[in-house]
Protein backbone atom coordinates (compact mmCIF):
# COMPACT_ATOMS: atom_id res chain seq x y z
CA UNK A 1 0.00 0.00 0.00
CA UNK A 2 2.56 2.55 1.17
CA UNK A 3 5.00 1.48 -1.52
CA UNK A 4 2.32 2.07 -4.08
CA UNK A 5 1.74 5.60 -2.77
CA UNK A 6 5.40 6.53 -2.72
CA UNK A 7 5.98 5.29 -6.23
CA UNK A 8 4.68 8.71 -7.26
CA UNK A 9 7.21 11.50 -7.14
CA UNK A 10 4.57 14.02 -6.07
CA UNK A 11 3.76 11.82 -3.10
CA UNK A 12 7.40 11.70 -2.07
CA UNK A 13 7.55 15.48 -2.30
CA UNK A 14 4.35 15.75 -0.31
CA UNK A 15 5.73 13.50 2.40
CA UNK A 16 8.92 15.52 2.57
CA UNK A 17 6.96 18.78 2.79
CA UNK A 18 4.83 17.35 5.58
CA UNK A 19 7.85 16.20 7.60
CA UNK A 20 9.83 19.39 7.07
CA UNK A 21 6.98 21.69 7.95
CA UNK A 22 6.25 19.68 11.11
CA UNK A 23 9.60 20.78 12.49
CA UNK A 24 8.76 24.49 12.35
CA UNK A 25 5.17 23.84 13.31
CA UNK A 26 5.93 21.88 16.49
CA UNK A 27 8.64 24.23 17.74
CA UNK A 28 6.90 27.53 17.08
CA UNK A 29 3.49 26.07 17.92
CA UNK A 30 4.84 25.34 21.40
CA UNK A 31 5.48 29.06 21.97
CA UNK A 32 2.11 29.97 20.46
CA UNK A 33 0.35 27.66 22.92
CA UNK A 34 2.25 28.46 26.12
CA UNK A 35 2.26 32.19 25.45
CA UNK A 36 -1.41 32.05 24.39
CA UNK A 37 -0.91 34.02 21.19
CA UNK A 38 -3.04 31.85 18.90
CA UNK A 39 -5.21 34.75 17.80
CA UNK A 40 -2.17 36.85 16.87
CA UNK A 41 -0.82 33.93 14.87
CA UNK A 42 -4.14 33.57 13.05
CA UNK A 43 -4.00 37.29 12.29
CA UNK A 44 -0.48 37.06 10.87
CA UNK A 45 -1.50 34.06 8.75
CA UNK A 46 -4.50 35.76 7.21
CA UNK A 47 -2.69 39.05 6.67
CA UNK A 48 -0.15 37.01 4.70
CA UNK A 49 -2.76 36.53 2.00
CA UNK A 50 -2.01 40.11 0.98
CA UNK A 51 1.53 38.93 0.20
CA UNK A 52 0.21 36.22 -2.10
CA UNK A 53 -1.81 38.82 -3.98
CA UNK A 54 1.18 41.14 -4.29
CA UNK A 55 3.29 38.22 -5.51
CA UNK A 56 0.74 37.38 -8.19
CA UNK A 57 0.45 40.97 -9.27
CA UNK A 58 4.21 41.33 -9.65
CA UNK A 59 4.43 38.00 -11.44
CA UNK A 60 6.88 36.47 -8.95
CA UNK A 61 6.59 33.25 -6.93
CA UNK A 62 3.91 34.09 -4.33
CA UNK A 63 6.09 32.62 -1.57
CA UNK A 64 8.53 35.48 -2.18
CA UNK A 65 5.67 37.94 -1.75
CA UNK A 66 4.42 36.27 1.41
CA UNK A 67 7.69 36.32 3.33
CA UNK A 68 8.19 40.12 3.50
CA UNK A 69 4.46 40.75 3.78
CA UNK A 70 3.89 38.43 6.72
CA UNK A 71 7.04 39.67 8.49
CA UNK A 72 5.77 43.25 8.14
CA UNK A 73 2.37 42.16 9.43
CA UNK A 74 3.95 40.48 12.45
CA UNK A 75 5.96 43.58 13.34
CA UNK A 76 3.02 45.94 12.77
CA UNK A 77 0.55 43.92 14.86
CA UNK A 78 3.11 43.46 17.61
CA UNK A 79 4.16 47.11 17.76
CA UNK A 80 0.62 48.42 17.52
CA UNK A 81 -0.59 46.28 20.41
CA UNK A 82 2.50 46.88 22.58
CA UNK A 83 3.20 50.54 22.02
CA UNK A 84 0.25 52.37 20.53
CA UNK A 85 -2.26 51.54 23.26
CA UNK A 86 -4.51 49.88 20.69
CA UNK A 87 -6.31 46.87 22.14
CA UNK A 88 -4.53 43.77 20.86
CA UNK A 89 -7.62 42.10 19.42
CA UNK A 90 -8.57 45.29 17.58
CA UNK A 91 -5.10 45.51 16.02
CA UNK A 92 -5.22 41.86 15.02
CA UNK A 93 -8.73 42.03 13.58
CA UNK A 94 -7.87 45.10 11.52
CA UNK A 95 -4.76 43.58 9.99
CA UNK A 96 -6.53 40.26 9.43
CA UNK A 97 -9.16 41.85 7.17
CA UNK A 98 -6.96 44.54 5.57
CA UNK A 99 -4.34 41.95 4.57
CA UNK A 100 -6.93 39.77 2.90
CA UNK A 101 -8.47 42.81 1.17
CA UNK A 102 -5.07 43.78 -0.29
CA UNK A 103 -4.71 40.24 -1.61
CA UNK A 104 -8.14 40.23 -3.24
CA UNK A 105 -7.57 43.62 -4.91
CA UNK A 106 -4.12 42.67 -6.24
CA UNK A 107 -5.38 39.39 -7.68
CA UNK A 108 -8.34 41.24 -9.27
CA UNK A 109 -6.02 43.79 -10.87
CA UNK A 110 -3.92 41.12 -12.57
CA UNK A 111 -5.59 40.07 -15.81
CA UNK A 112 -6.34 36.38 -16.20
CA UNK A 113 -7.34 33.60 -13.85
CA UNK A 114 -5.28 32.77 -10.74
CA UNK A 115 -5.20 28.99 -11.02
CA UNK A 116 -3.58 27.78 -7.80
CA UNK A 117 -4.90 30.51 -5.54
CA UNK A 118 -7.07 27.97 -3.82
CA UNK A 119 -4.04 25.92 -2.86
CA UNK A 120 -2.55 28.84 -0.90
CA UNK A 121 -5.78 29.36 0.97
CA UNK A 122 -6.52 25.72 1.78
CA UNK A 123 -3.23 23.98 1.05
CA UNK A 124 -2.34 21.48 -1.59
CA UNK A 125 0.57 19.45 -0.47
CA UNK A 126 0.42 17.31 -3.62
CA UNK A 127 1.65 20.12 -5.85
CA UNK A 128 4.63 21.40 -3.85
CA UNK A 129 7.34 22.38 -6.34
CA UNK A 130 10.93 21.63 -5.38
CA UNK A 131 11.75 25.34 -5.09
CA UNK A 132 9.19 25.57 -2.26
CA UNK A 133 10.66 22.45 -0.66
CA UNK A 134 14.08 24.09 -0.54
CA UNK A 135 12.49 27.23 0.84
CA UNK A 136 10.74 25.26 3.60
CA UNK A 137 14.01 23.57 4.50
CA UNK A 138 15.84 26.89 4.63
CA UNK A 139 13.20 28.48 6.87
CA UNK A 140 13.25 25.38 9.11
CA UNK A 141 16.98 25.78 9.62
CA UNK A 142 16.61 29.49 10.32
CA UNK A 143 13.85 28.90 12.89
CA UNK A 144 15.83 26.10 14.57
CA UNK A 145 18.93 28.29 14.78
CA UNK A 146 17.15 31.29 16.30
CA UNK A 147 15.25 29.17 18.83
CA UNK A 148 18.46 27.37 19.80
CA UNK A 149 20.37 30.61 20.29
CA UNK A 150 17.60 32.38 22.19
CA UNK A 151 16.10 29.43 24.07
CA UNK A 152 16.55 30.92 27.54
CA UNK A 153 15.23 34.33 26.50
CA UNK A 154 12.18 32.87 24.73
CA UNK A 155 11.43 30.67 27.75
CA UNK A 156 11.63 33.71 30.02
CA UNK A 157 9.29 35.91 27.99
CA UNK A 158 6.86 33.04 27.48
CA UNK A 159 6.65 32.22 31.16
CA UNK A 160 6.73 35.62 32.80
CA UNK A 161 7.38 38.63 30.60
CA UNK A 162 7.58 41.00 33.56
CA UNK A 163 10.24 38.97 35.32
CA UNK A 164 12.16 38.84 32.05
CA UNK A 165 12.03 42.64 31.87
CA UNK A 166 13.20 42.95 35.49
CA UNK A 167 16.12 40.67 34.59
CA UNK A 168 17.22 43.20 31.98
CA UNK A 169 15.89 41.52 28.82
CA UNK A 170 14.62 43.59 25.90
CA UNK A 171 11.23 41.94 26.05
CA UNK A 172 9.52 43.91 23.28
CA UNK A 173 12.30 43.17 20.78
CA UNK A 174 12.26 39.48 21.72
CA UNK A 175 8.49 39.35 21.42
CA UNK A 176 8.61 40.92 17.95
CA UNK A 177 11.26 38.42 16.93
CA UNK A 178 9.02 35.61 18.16
CA UNK A 179 6.15 36.98 16.06
CA UNK A 180 8.48 37.07 13.04
CA UNK A 181 9.27 33.40 13.56
CA UNK A 182 5.53 32.72 13.66
CA UNK A 183 5.21 34.59 10.36
CA UNK A 184 7.93 32.41 8.79
CA UNK A 185 6.23 29.30 10.13
CA UNK A 186 3.02 30.41 8.45
CA UNK A 187 4.94 30.58 5.18
CA UNK A 188 6.30 27.08 5.76
CA UNK A 189 2.84 25.69 6.55
CA UNK A 190 1.06 27.48 3.74
CA UNK A 191 1.71 24.74 1.20
CA UNK A 192 0.61 21.99 3.55
CA UNK A 193 -2.69 23.19 5.01
CA UNK A 194 -3.12 26.70 3.56
CA UNK A 195 -3.16 29.99 5.41
CA UNK A 196 -6.80 29.68 6.48
CA UNK A 197 -6.12 26.49 8.42
CA UNK A 198 -2.54 27.12 9.56
CA UNK A 199 -3.65 28.11 13.02
CA UNK A 200 -5.12 24.67 13.74
CA UNK A 201 -1.94 22.80 12.91
CA UNK A 202 0.11 25.40 14.77
CA UNK A 203 -1.82 24.93 18.01
CA UNK A 204 -3.27 21.39 18.12
CA UNK A 205 -0.04 19.32 18.23
CA UNK A 206 1.48 21.65 20.84
CA UNK A 207 -1.69 21.70 22.93
CA UNK A 208 -1.78 17.90 23.06
CA UNK A 209 1.96 17.76 23.77
CA UNK A 210 1.56 20.13 26.71
CA UNK A 211 -0.66 17.67 28.55
CA UNK A 212 2.24 15.26 29.05
CA UNK A 213 5.31 17.54 29.04
CA UNK A 214 7.39 18.92 31.90
CA UNK A 215 9.63 21.20 29.86
CA UNK A 216 9.49 23.31 26.72
CA UNK A 217 12.06 21.22 24.80
CA UNK A 218 10.12 18.05 25.67
CA UNK A 219 6.92 19.68 24.53
CA UNK A 220 8.55 20.79 21.26
CA UNK A 221 9.77 17.29 20.40
CA UNK A 222 6.34 15.80 21.08
CA UNK A 223 4.61 18.53 19.11
CA UNK A 224 6.91 17.95 16.10
CA UNK A 225 6.20 14.21 16.20
CA UNK A 226 2.45 14.74 16.55
CA UNK A 227 2.42 17.25 13.74
CA UNK A 228 4.29 14.81 11.47
CA UNK A 229 1.88 12.06 12.47
CA UNK A 230 -1.19 14.17 11.68
CA UNK A 231 0.25 15.30 8.35
CA UNK A 232 1.16 11.79 7.22
CA UNK A 233 -2.14 10.29 8.41
CA UNK A 234 -4.07 13.05 6.70
CA UNK A 235 -2.07 12.67 3.52
CA UNK A 236 -2.63 8.93 3.45
CA UNK A 237 -6.37 9.24 4.15
CA UNK A 238 -6.80 11.93 1.52
CA UNK A 239 -5.11 9.64 -1.01
CA UNK A 240 -7.35 6.71 -0.08
CA UNK A 241 -10.57 8.71 -0.04
CA UNK A 242 -9.60 11.09 -2.84
CA UNK A 243 -10.39 14.24 -0.84
CA UNK A 244 -8.50 17.51 -0.19
CA UNK A 245 -5.24 16.82 1.67
CA UNK A 246 -5.00 20.02 3.76
CA UNK A 247 -8.52 19.69 5.10
CA UNK A 248 -8.01 16.01 5.86
CA UNK A 249 -4.86 16.77 7.87
CA UNK A 250 -6.79 19.35 9.92
CA UNK A 251 -9.65 16.91 10.53
CA UNK A 252 -7.25 14.22 11.71
CA UNK A 253 -5.60 16.74 14.07
CA UNK A 254 -8.95 18.00 15.36
CA UNK A 255 -10.20 14.47 15.95
CA UNK A 256 -7.06 13.57 17.93
CA UNK A 257 -7.43 16.78 19.94
CA UNK A 258 -10.91 15.70 21.00
CA UNK A 259 -9.66 12.19 21.76
CA UNK A 260 -6.84 13.54 23.93
CA UNK A 261 -9.23 15.68 25.93
CA UNK A 262 -11.71 12.82 26.30
CA UNK A 263 -8.85 10.63 27.57
CA UNK A 264 -7.87 13.34 30.03
CA UNK A 265 -11.44 13.69 31.31
CA UNK A 266 -11.74 9.95 31.86
CA UNK A 267 -8.34 9.76 33.55
CA UNK A 268 -9.00 12.70 35.86
CA UNK A 269 -12.51 11.68 36.84
CA UNK A 270 -12.67 10.61 40.50
CA UNK A 271 -13.95 7.12 39.70
CA UNK A 272 -10.96 6.25 37.52
CA UNK A 273 -8.52 3.82 39.15
CA UNK A 274 -4.80 4.40 39.37
CA UNK A 275 -4.79 8.10 40.07
CA UNK A 276 -1.38 9.29 41.13
CA UNK B 1 24.92 55.69 58.45
CA UNK B 2 24.76 52.61 56.26
CA UNK B 3 25.14 53.26 52.52
CA UNK B 4 21.82 53.82 50.77
CA UNK B 5 20.41 51.10 48.54
CA UNK B 6 17.08 52.77 47.78
CA UNK B 7 16.44 56.51 47.88
CA UNK B 8 13.04 58.02 47.06
CA UNK B 9 12.61 61.76 47.27
CA UNK B 10 9.04 63.15 47.08
CA UNK B 11 8.16 60.36 44.66
CA UNK B 12 4.71 60.45 43.05
CA UNK B 13 3.15 57.96 40.65
CA UNK B 14 0.00 58.40 38.55
CA UNK B 15 -1.76 55.43 36.99
CA UNK B 16 -4.48 56.21 34.47
CA UNK B 17 -4.85 59.76 35.82
CA UNK B 18 -5.13 58.66 39.44
CA UNK B 19 -2.39 59.47 41.94
CA UNK B 20 -1.62 56.14 43.61
CA UNK B 21 1.64 57.14 45.31
CA UNK B 22 2.02 60.70 46.57
CA UNK B 23 5.16 62.44 47.77
CA UNK B 24 6.94 59.41 49.19
CA UNK B 25 10.35 60.05 50.73
CA UNK B 26 12.12 56.89 51.82
CA UNK B 27 15.62 55.65 52.40
CA UNK B 28 16.57 52.01 52.68
CA UNK B 29 20.15 51.40 53.77
CA UNK B 30 22.32 48.35 53.29
CA UNK B 31 21.19 45.52 55.57
CA UNK B 32 17.83 47.10 56.33
CA UNK B 33 14.69 45.00 56.44
CA UNK B 34 11.74 47.21 55.55
CA UNK B 35 8.17 45.98 55.79
CA UNK B 36 5.77 47.88 53.57
CA UNK B 37 2.23 47.55 54.82
CA UNK B 38 -1.05 49.20 53.95
CA UNK B 39 -4.50 48.58 52.52
CA UNK B 40 -5.16 47.06 49.11
CA UNK B 41 -4.86 49.73 46.45
CA UNK B 42 -2.58 51.74 48.75
CA UNK B 43 0.24 51.70 46.17
CA UNK B 44 2.55 49.08 47.67
CA UNK B 45 2.91 46.98 44.55
CA UNK B 46 3.16 50.14 42.43
CA UNK B 47 6.05 51.38 44.54
CA UNK B 48 7.87 48.06 44.08
CA UNK B 49 7.25 48.23 40.34
CA UNK B 50 8.75 51.71 40.21
CA UNK B 51 11.84 50.48 42.05
CA UNK B 52 12.16 47.67 39.48
CA UNK B 53 11.86 50.06 36.56
CA UNK B 54 8.56 48.52 35.42
CA UNK B 55 6.45 51.59 36.11
CA UNK B 56 7.16 55.25 35.37
CA UNK B 57 6.87 57.86 38.09
CA UNK B 58 5.45 61.31 37.51
CA UNK B 59 7.32 63.43 40.02
CA UNK B 60 10.22 63.28 42.43
CA UNK B 61 13.44 61.29 42.28
CA UNK B 62 14.29 57.62 42.74
CA UNK B 63 17.67 55.99 42.99
CA UNK B 64 18.36 52.28 43.33
CA UNK B 65 22.00 51.37 43.90
CA UNK B 66 22.76 54.98 43.07
CA UNK B 67 21.30 54.74 39.55
CA UNK B 68 17.98 54.84 37.78
CA UNK B 69 15.48 52.08 38.58
CA UNK B 70 15.96 49.14 36.22
CA UNK B 71 19.63 49.92 35.59
CA UNK B 72 21.07 47.27 37.92
CA UNK B 73 19.06 44.09 37.30
CA UNK B 74 21.85 41.75 38.42
CA UNK B 75 21.78 43.10 41.99
CA UNK B 76 18.05 42.78 42.65
CA UNK B 77 16.03 39.65 43.40
CA UNK B 78 12.30 39.98 42.80
CA UNK B 79 9.58 37.70 44.15
CA UNK B 80 6.31 38.67 42.43
CA UNK B 81 2.84 37.73 43.58
CA UNK B 82 2.56 34.16 42.47
CA UNK B 83 -0.91 34.42 40.99
CA UNK B 84 0.30 36.33 37.96
CA UNK B 85 1.42 33.50 35.73
CA UNK B 86 0.14 30.28 34.22
CA UNK B 87 0.51 27.39 36.66
CA UNK B 88 -0.09 24.91 33.83
CA UNK B 89 3.11 26.04 32.13
CA UNK B 90 5.31 23.00 31.40
CA UNK B 91 8.33 23.90 33.51
CA UNK B 92 10.13 22.15 36.36
CA UNK B 93 11.24 23.77 39.60
CA UNK B 94 14.84 23.50 38.35
CA UNK B 95 14.13 25.43 35.13
CA UNK B 96 12.04 28.00 36.98
CA UNK B 97 14.86 28.72 39.42
CA UNK B 98 17.37 28.74 36.57
CA UNK B 99 15.49 31.77 35.25
CA UNK B 100 16.84 33.65 38.24
CA UNK B 101 20.27 33.51 36.58
CA UNK B 102 19.00 35.47 33.57
CA UNK B 103 20.21 38.80 34.92
CA UNK B 104 23.74 37.40 35.21
CA UNK B 105 23.89 36.22 31.60
CA UNK B 106 24.43 38.00 28.34
CA UNK B 107 22.09 37.68 25.38
CA UNK B 108 22.72 34.41 23.41
CA UNK B 109 24.72 32.98 26.34
CA UNK B 110 23.47 29.57 27.47
CA UNK B 111 23.35 28.52 31.12
CA UNK B 112 26.52 26.75 32.30
CA UNK B 113 27.71 24.67 35.26
CA UNK B 114 28.08 27.64 37.58
CA UNK B 115 24.47 28.60 36.93
CA UNK B 116 23.34 25.05 37.70
CA UNK B 117 25.33 25.01 40.94
CA UNK B 118 23.75 28.28 42.06
CA UNK B 119 20.34 26.79 41.31
CA UNK B 120 21.08 23.74 43.45
CA UNK B 121 22.21 26.00 46.31
CA UNK B 122 19.15 28.22 46.07
CA UNK B 123 16.80 25.25 45.94
CA UNK B 124 18.58 23.78 48.96
CA UNK B 125 18.23 27.04 50.85
CA UNK B 126 14.45 27.00 50.52
CA UNK B 127 14.27 23.25 51.19
CA UNK B 128 12.88 22.05 47.88
CA UNK B 129 15.66 19.59 46.90
CA UNK B 130 13.23 16.69 46.79
CA UNK B 131 10.90 18.49 44.41
CA UNK B 132 13.47 19.97 42.03
CA UNK B 133 12.35 17.95 39.01
CA UNK B 134 8.66 18.43 39.71
CA UNK B 135 6.43 20.41 37.37
CA UNK B 136 5.36 23.66 39.05
CA UNK B 137 1.70 22.85 38.44
CA UNK B 138 2.08 19.93 40.88
CA UNK B 139 3.40 22.08 43.76
CA UNK B 140 1.34 23.37 46.68
CA UNK B 141 0.95 27.12 47.13
CA UNK B 142 3.66 27.26 49.78
CA UNK B 143 6.07 25.14 47.74
CA UNK B 144 5.57 27.33 44.69
CA UNK B 145 6.23 30.40 46.83
CA UNK B 146 9.49 28.85 48.00
CA UNK B 147 10.43 28.09 44.41
CA UNK B 148 9.86 31.74 43.52
CA UNK B 149 12.08 32.85 46.41
CA UNK B 150 14.72 30.37 45.22
CA UNK B 151 14.52 31.92 41.75
CA UNK B 152 15.25 35.35 43.22
CA UNK B 153 18.14 33.96 45.33
CA UNK B 154 19.74 32.09 42.42
CA UNK B 155 20.71 35.45 40.93
CA UNK B 156 22.83 36.22 44.05
CA UNK B 157 21.07 39.54 44.71
CA UNK B 158 22.04 42.21 47.22
CA UNK B 159 18.50 43.54 47.45
CA UNK B 160 15.43 41.33 47.72
CA UNK B 161 11.98 42.69 46.88
CA UNK B 162 9.07 40.47 47.95
CA UNK B 163 5.48 41.23 47.00
CA UNK B 164 3.07 39.56 49.44
CA UNK B 165 4.91 36.23 49.55
CA UNK B 166 2.39 34.77 52.00
CA UNK B 167 -0.89 35.78 50.38
CA UNK B 168 -3.33 32.87 50.34
CA UNK B 169 -1.02 30.43 52.10
CA UNK B 170 -2.03 28.50 55.22
CA UNK B 171 -0.71 29.84 58.56
CA UNK B 172 1.85 27.08 59.13
CA UNK B 173 3.41 27.65 55.73
CA UNK B 174 3.42 31.38 56.40
CA UNK B 175 5.52 30.93 59.51
CA UNK B 176 8.01 28.74 57.67
CA UNK B 177 8.35 31.29 54.89
CA UNK B 178 9.01 34.03 57.44
CA UNK B 179 11.62 31.82 59.10
CA UNK B 180 13.27 31.53 55.71
CA UNK B 181 13.16 35.30 55.18
CA UNK B 182 14.63 35.85 58.63
CA UNK B 183 17.65 33.75 57.69
CA UNK B 184 18.09 35.82 54.56
CA UNK B 185 18.08 39.15 56.33
CA UNK B 186 21.54 38.41 57.70
CA UNK B 187 23.08 38.90 54.27
CA UNK B 188 20.52 40.81 52.21
CA UNK B 189 18.70 44.11 52.17
CA UNK B 190 15.01 43.27 52.08
CA UNK B 191 11.83 45.15 51.20
CA UNK B 192 8.73 43.10 52.00
CA UNK B 193 5.19 43.99 51.00
CA UNK B 194 2.82 42.22 53.34
CA UNK B 195 -0.45 42.15 55.24
CA UNK B 196 0.88 40.04 58.12
CA UNK B 197 1.83 42.85 60.47
CA UNK B 198 1.49 40.63 63.51
CA UNK B 199 4.07 38.13 62.22
CA UNK B 200 6.73 40.45 60.89
CA UNK B 201 7.19 42.75 63.86
CA UNK B 202 10.01 40.82 65.42
CA UNK B 203 12.05 40.52 62.23
CA UNK B 204 12.06 43.92 60.59
CA UNK B 205 14.19 47.00 61.18
CA UNK B 206 11.69 49.46 59.68
CA UNK B 207 7.97 49.49 59.02
CA UNK B 208 6.35 51.87 56.56
CA UNK B 209 2.63 52.21 56.02
CA UNK B 210 1.68 53.19 52.52
CA UNK B 211 -1.79 54.48 51.81
CA UNK B 212 -1.03 56.74 48.84
CA UNK B 213 1.27 58.69 51.17
CA UNK B 214 3.86 57.03 53.33
CA UNK B 215 4.61 57.02 57.04
CA UNK B 216 7.78 55.51 58.37
CA UNK B 217 8.34 53.95 61.79
CA UNK B 218 12.01 53.56 62.47
CA UNK B 219 13.33 52.52 65.84
CA UNK B 220 16.58 54.01 67.10
CA UNK B 221 17.72 50.79 68.67
CA UNK B 222 17.10 47.12 68.10
CA UNK B 223 15.05 46.97 71.29
CA UNK B 224 12.64 49.40 69.73
CA UNK B 225 11.83 46.99 66.95
CA UNK B 226 9.81 44.95 69.43
CA UNK B 227 7.16 47.60 69.36
CA UNK B 228 7.01 47.92 65.57
CA UNK B 229 4.34 45.29 65.27
CA UNK B 230 2.29 47.21 67.78
CA UNK B 231 2.68 50.41 65.78
CA UNK B 232 1.50 48.75 62.63
CA UNK B 233 -1.29 46.79 64.26
CA UNK B 234 -2.74 49.81 65.99
CA UNK B 235 -2.60 51.91 62.88
CA UNK B 236 -6.14 52.88 61.88
CA UNK B 237 -5.50 52.14 58.21
CA UNK B 238 -5.80 48.41 58.94
CA UNK B 239 -9.38 47.71 59.83
CA UNK B 240 -8.76 44.01 59.22
CA UNK B 241 -6.11 43.72 61.89
List the helices and strands and how they pair.
The complex is a heterodimer of chains A (276) and B (241).
Chain A lengths: L1 H5 L2 H26 L3 H10 L1 H10 L3 H22 L4 H22 L7 H6 L7 H20 L1 H9 L1 H6 L4 H23 L4 H14 L4 H26 L3 H24 L8
Helix pairs in contact in A: 2-8, 2-11, 2-12, 2-13, 3-5, 3-6, 3-11, 3-12, 4-5, 4-6, 5-6, 5-11, 8-11, 12-13, 12-14, 13-14
Chain B lengths: L3 E12 L2 E12 L3 E5 L6 H8 L7 E6 L11 E4 L13 H6 L14 H13 L15 H14 L4 E5 L7 H14 L4 E5 L3 H4 L5 E6 L1 E5 L10 H7 L7
Parallel strand pairs in B: 3-7, 3-8, 5-6, 6-7
Antiparallel strand pairs in B: 1-2, 1-4, 8-9
Helix pairs in contact in B: 3-4
Show unreliable segments of chain A: none
Largest interface (CB within 8 Å) is between:
A-B, 27 and 31 residues
Q: Label the CATH architecture of chain B.
A: 3-Layer(aba) Sandwich
How does CATH name the architecture of chain A? Answer: Orthogonal Bundle
Number of domains of chain B: 1
State mean pLDDT of chain B (0 to 100 scale). Answer: 84
CATH class of chain B: Alpha Beta
Q: Helical stretch count of chain A? A: 14
The CATH superfamily of chain B bears the name P-loop containing nucleotide triphosphate hydrolases
Question: Could you say which overall geometry of chain B the principal axes of the C-alpha atoms support?
Answer: globular
Examine the coordinates and then state which fold CATH places here, giving the name of the CATH topology of chain B.
Rossmann fold
Low-confidence parts of chain B: 221-226, 236-241
Output mean pLDDT of chain A.
89
- Compute the number of strand runs of chain B: 9
